Amino acid sequence: MRKFNYALLFAAAIATSSIAGAADVTVGGQSMLPTKDIVDNAVNSADHTTLVAAVKAAGLVDTLKSKGPFTVFAPTNAAFSKLPAGTVDTLVKPENKATLTKILTYHVVPGKHDFMSLSAQIKKQGGPIELATASGGKLWFTMNGPHNISVKDESGNVASISTYDVYQSNGVINVIDTVLMPK
């Protein structure tokens, strides 16, 4: 009986440490919980208030709460601030919903693409890989050092992924430092 209790205690300690490890990923000062969906986690990030407002303005909340899986390349508030003055204010107006939706869905790639899968594909290809976005556009991924991946958009902008593999119940978020723009 005593042996069983130690084994049970050991198993509980491992399970607790796995759960705690999953909750240790923070974005925008908040824990990102793998049991929550993309939207529920994003709304807690202080670094993604502009993205969340844009997702709401585009009417994409229900889509990003659906089953997925989705990979979202999530620009920070600082990334949005790199855009020309007034761009965000113009895009969130109701009359620009279609353009905003195209830009936001350009940041979404169907499927679950984490660092390991992206880097493995890049290494196998021997160079950049191309992935199709939910908007029908294309993004190119290249290794930028042994532990970094850069994302290039159709307009020639290059974003660095600053936080990888923020797992969600319906996909994964990779935080980027530049807003990606389709043609």
TrEMBL record:
Pfam family membership, one: Fasciclin
Signal peptide: 1-22
Boundaries of every FAS1 domain copy: 35-180
Source domain of life: Bacteria
Keywords noted in UniProt: Signal
Keyword Signal set for record: yes
Entries under InterPro entries matching the protein: Adhesion/Biosynth-related, FAS1_dom_sf, FAS1_domain
Protein name: Fasciclin domain-containing protein
